[in-house]
Write a structure and sequence with these properties.
single chain; 451 residues; 18 strands; 40% helix; 22% strand
Length: 451
C-alpha cells in the first residue's frame, strides 16, 4: 500500500496556499508514476482551514476536488496498526490456530464468527495455559497416558473455547500518545481497531508503539512552525516549497527546500512542471493561475517578478484566456463584503508573526470595493480587539487592499506606536491610514515590521 505524503499549506489558507498544494501533489504523483513508484507513495493535497470564496469558485468551475481538512499530523493509531491482521474462524481447532501462529510468527490471531465479525483474540498465552493445565493431571496422580490423551484432546478444541473477548478496542483516528498507557496496562497488551460493521481492520501490539513511524509532510507556502499544521514537530517534513522568509521549521535530515523570491508558491510549482516536462492539465493550470493572480494582486504587487508574469502567460496559454481578465474574475468571486461574516473578513487571510518575544497578527483582505469594508469599520475594530485580547498580540494590523486603487487602508488595534514608527505615519486609529502603493503583506509590511 502506498505511503501517503500530505501536501499542506499554512493556517488560515489563502488561494495560493491551497492551489499550490493541489498543483504540487499532482506533479509529485506524476513524477512518482514516471519513476515506477506510484505504488510506493501517494501525495495528497490537504488544507488547514476553510476554502476562500475565490478558491471555492475555481475548484467548482474546474471540477477539482477540494483538499481534505488536515487537523493535525500527530501519529494516529491507524498509522501504526497492522492492517488486515491474520484471522481464524471461531470453529477452527486449536491445532489450526497453532499452525497459523507459528507460520506468521505472531502472538495472537483475530477470531471471527461465521459472518466475519470480530469475536476476540486467541493468543499463544491461552494455548500455553491450556497445555500447562493438562500437565496438572500428573499432580493429580494420573498416568502419562491420561496426560497425553488430554493434551491431544486440547489440540482438537474449538478456538472459541480459548478466545479472549476482553480486548482493548481502539479508534483508528485516536492519537497514539493518548492510548499507549491503556495498551500497556491491558491484559493482552494488544488492541484491535474495528470498523462500523464490527470487522477487525487492524491490530496494535507493543512492538508497534516502540518506534512508531512519523507522518510524512510536504509544506507549501510557509516554513514557520506557528503557521504549520499541529504536530509538525512529530512529523517528517520531506520537502518545503515556499516564497517567504526562512523561519524555524526543523528537519532531522537534509531535504529539498525550494525557496524562491517570486510572487507566489504557485509560480514555483508551475516552473517545476515545466522543468520536469510534465503536462499541466487545464484544471491544474486554472488553479495555479488563479493563485498567481491573487498572490501578486494581478501582477501589480511589488512581489511580482518577470518569472511570475512568464508562468502566468504560460498557464493562460494552456487555458486560452487573458491572464489579467482571468485574475479579475477570480477577485470578483470574493465580493459580498457588506454581509460577509466578520471572522471571515478579518481572519481568512491572517498570519501570526513573532516580534521579538511577543506575537503580532497581520491580516489582509483584498477587494475591489474598499468602501464596503470601511462602512463596517466599527465591527472590524471590535473583532480585532477580540483577537488582541484572546491571543495576547502586541497589535493586530488589518490591511484592506484596494486592487484597483493600488494601495491599502491600515487599521490597527493594540500597540499602534510600533506600526506608526515603522511606516512613519501618525495614526492608524479611527478611519485608518491610506498607504498608497502598499499591496504586499510579505514584502512591504511584515518585512519592515519584523526587520
Amino acid at each position: 500500500m502506498a505511503t501517503p505524503i500530505m501536501v499542506v499549506g499554512h493556517r488560515n489558507p489563502d488561494n495560493d496556499s491551497i492551489c499550490a498544494a493541489i498543483g504540487y501533489a499532482h506533479l509529485k504523483n506524476a513524477l512518482a508514476e514516471r519513476a515506477g513508484k506510484a505504488d510506493e507513495v501517494a501525495y495528497v493535497a490537504a488544507r488547514q482551514g476553510a476554502l476562500p470564496p475565490e478558491t471555492a469558485q475555481v475548484l467548482g468551475e474546474w471540477d477539482i476536488e477540494a483538499p481534505a481538512m488536515l487537523p493535525h499530523v500527530h501519529v494516529r493509531v491507524g498509522d501504526v496498526m497492522t492492517k488486515d491482521p491474520v484471522s481464524i474462524s471461531a470453529d477452527a481447532t486449536v491445532m489450526e490456530a497453532g499452525h497459523k501462529l507459528r507460520k506468521h510468527n505472531i502472538r495472537s490471531l483475530v477470531v471471527l464468527d461465521g459472518d466475519g465479525a470480530f469475536q476476540g483474540l486467541i493468543a499463544t498465552r491461552a494455548i500455553a495455559n491450556r497445555y500447562i493445565a493438562a500437565t496438572d493431571l500428573i499432580d493429580q496422580g494420573r498416568d502419562q497416558q491420561d496426560v497425553a490423551r488430554d493434551l491431544m484432546a486440547s489440540l482438537g478444541q474449538k478456538v472459541s473455547e480459548l478466545t479472549e473477548s476482553n480486548v482493548l478496542v481502539l479508534d483508528k483516528e485516536a492519537l497514539l500518545r493518548d492510548v499507549v498507557d491503556d495498551l500497556i496496562s491491558s491484559e493482552l497488551r494488544e488492541g484491535v481497531v474495528l470498523d462500523d460493521d464490527n470487522r477487525c481492520i487492524g491490530i496494535v501490539t507493543r512492538s508497534d508503539i516502540a518506534a512508531p513511524p512519523k507522518r510524512k509532510v510536504v509544506l507549501v507556502d510557509h516554513n514557520e512552525t506557528r503557521q504549520s499544521v499541529p504536530g509538525i514537530q512529530e512529523a517528517e517534513v520531506v520537502e518545503i516549497i515556499d516564497h517567504h522568509r526562512i523561519a524555524d521549521v526543523m528537519t532531522a535530515l537534509p531535504i529539498q527546500f525550494l525557496n524562491l523570491p517570486w510572487g507566489s508558491t504557485a509560480t514555483i510549482v508551475a516552473s517545476e512542471f515545466r522543468k520536469y516536462g510534465v503536462e499541466v492539465p487545464k484544471p491544474i493550470a486554472a488553479a495555479l493561475l488563479s493563485a498567481i493572480m491573487t498572490d501578486t494582486v494581478i501582477l501589480k504587487s511589488p512581489t511580482a517578478t518577470d518569472v511570475d508574469r512568464d508562468q502566468a502567460d504560460y498557464l493562460a496559454g494552456i487555458l486560452g484566456v487573458d491572464a489579467t481578465e482571468f485574475g479579475l474574475d477570480v477577485f470578483k468571486a470574493r465580493g459580498g463584503e457588506s454581509n460577509m461574516p466578520m471572522k471571515e473578513l478579518v481572519e481568512a487571510d491572517s498570519k501570526e508573526f513573532m516580534l521579538g518575544d511577543v506575537p503580532v497578527l497581520i491580516a489582509q483582505h483584498e477587494t475591489v470595493d474598499l468602501a464596503a469594508v470601511m462602512d463596517r469599520e466599527d465591527e472590524v475594530r471590535e473583532h480585532m480587539r477580540t483577537l488582541l485580547d484572546a491571543h495576547g498580540y502586541e497589535f493586530v494590523l488589518f490591511m484592506v487592499t484596494d486592487i484597483m486603487a493600488e494601495g491599502s487602508q491600515f487599521l490597527c488595534e493594540g500597540n499602534r506606536r510600533v506600526v506608526n514608527r515603522v511606516f512613519g505615519i501618525s495614526c492608524t486609529g479611527q478611519g485608518g491610514t491610506w498607504m498608497p502603493g502598499v499591496l504586499s503583506r510579505k514584502k512591504q509590511v511584515a518585512a519592515k515590521i519584523l526587520g
